[in-house]
Design brief:
Layout (H helix, E strand, L loop, with lengths): L1 H13 L2 E5 L6 H4 E3 L9 E4 L7 H4 L1 E4 L4 E13 L6 E9 L5 E3 L2 E4 L16 E8 L2 E10 L2 E4 L12 E8 L4 E6 L2 E7 H4 L7 E3 L14 E3 L14 E3 L11 H4 L6 E3 L11 E3 L11 E3 L15 E10 L4 E9 L2 H10 L1 H51 L1
């Protein structure tokens, strides 16, 4: 037990925190550079939102203008490479406005990224976080590899309520990853399988062709089956029970014809019976060969230079709050940070929102009852006014 505890302590001591931002006061503006790529970027403001526990601890930066792009970024205290170790990117997002369309992700970049000119085309290493627009509600994990950006192939559904949620990406040196939401695993896998970073290992043999006599029909018509002689009956026939109306005039109404009805003897289109095809060989499968363009890469996870992080977003309805950002090489360090920030906020926030929702529900009920109670009085007053107008007339 002592050995386990000692190892845990050593792991925490050796952990590196490359970036941490809690937006505890107004000094955040000195660290986060406002891009000048456009002259009408939306403004972030410091806010803890409507529901919080300790305001200074729970406040973050909030988008404050509708239908705007936002672009702000900060340099790391320490530039690093994740060679031979994990990297953990973690932060909280709160869509307090009930977002309908907008991003909530971060971009983690190289140390030489141009933050003054930061915009949508600025190169990045990793883009991670929730994105919501209409029915689309997913967590983006986009990895840059050899100059191209690759979106994860798996669907990861993000949270879309009005509470704070914790998003964590763990990128491991064995080319595996994990995405956590609120500390719970939302997706895991390997970088090679879940992204199209490398060409396929196998490809269809370009020289292979399906033989001309290859029969893929499992069933065929029975050549010995023949259509019965009495099969072909019309689908509709004149109604034998119909009679010409007594007042029918051929000169005025034309020649009378009985109405048509469904033929009870109609059997539909005849088709021969199906039998097993004696020549059936199964579905032809195109043979595969090793892809000559495929080369394994044990360092898909590797980025030689991490040094900046930024928000590059579009939001139709503003109000999202970002907070508690940490970039580290230790999941334990990230979890400890969450315990001191997110875990304390989420309990108080949920309780206060539920209390506010209940109070709003009761108020709405009281107002509805009040309106209902006022209806008879309004009717009586209206009737009295009508009687008075009638007397005057």
């Amino acid at each position: 037990m002592r050995s386990v505890c000692l190892l845990a302590v050593v792991a925490l001591v050796s952990a590196e925190v490359y970036f941490k931002e809690e937006f505890n006061d107004n000094t955040w503006e000195q660290r986060w550079v406002q891009s000048n790529h456009k002259d009408d970027f939306g403004a972030f403001k410091l806010s803890a939102g409507k529901y919080f526990d300790v305001e200074s601890r729970d406040q973050g930066i909030q988008t404050s203008q509708d239908a705007k792009f936002y672009s702000r970024a900060a340099k790391f205290d320490k530039t690093f490479s994740n060679k031979g170790k994990s990297v953990v990117i973690q932060y909280t997002v709160k869509h307090e406005q009930g977002i309908d369309c907008g991003g909530g992700y971060v971009k983690v970049m190289r140390s030489d990224a141009d933050l003054v000119g930061f915009h949508g085309e600025t190169p990045y290493n990793i883009m991670f976080g929730p994105d919501i627009c209409g029915p689309t509600r997913r967590v983006h994990v986009i990895l840059s590899y050899k100059g191209k950006n690759h979106l994860i192939k798996k669907e990861i559904t993000c949270k879309s309520d009005e509470l704070t949620h914790l998003y964590t990406l763990i990128l491991n040196s064995d080319n595996t990853y994990e995405v956590q939401i609120d500390g719970e695993s939302a997706q895991t896998g390997s970088l090679e399988e879940d992204w199209d970073l490398l060409p396929a290992k196998k490809i269809k043999d370009p020289d292979a062709k399906k033989p001309e006599d290859w029969d893929e029909r499992e069933y065929v018509d029975d050549a010995e089956d023949s259509k019965p002689e009495d099969w072909d009956k019309p689908e509709h026939i004149p109604d034998p029970d119909a009679k010409q109306p007594e007042d029918w005039d051929d000169e005025m109404d034309g020649e009378w014809e009985p109405p048509m009805i469904d033929n009870p003897e109609y059997k539909g289109e005849w088709k021969p019976k199906q039998i097993k095809n004696p020549e059936y060989k199964g579905k032809w499968i195109h043979p595969e060969i090793d892809n000559p363009e495929y080369t394994p890469d044990d360092e898909l996870y590797l980025y030689e230079d991490f040094g900046a992080i930024g928000f590059d977003l579009w939001q139709v309805k503003s109000g999202t709050i970002f907070d508690n950002i940490i970039v580290t090489d230790s999941l334990e360090e990230a979890q400890a940070h969450a315990a001191e920030t997110f875990d304390k906020l989420k309990v108080a926030e949920k309780e206060k929102k539920e209390a506010a929702d209940e109070a709003a529900r009761k108020l709405a009920e009281e107002e509805a009852k009040k309106k209902e109670a006022e209806k008879p009085e309004e009717t009586e007053e209206a009737e009295e006014d009508e009687d008075k107008e009638h007397d005057e007339l």
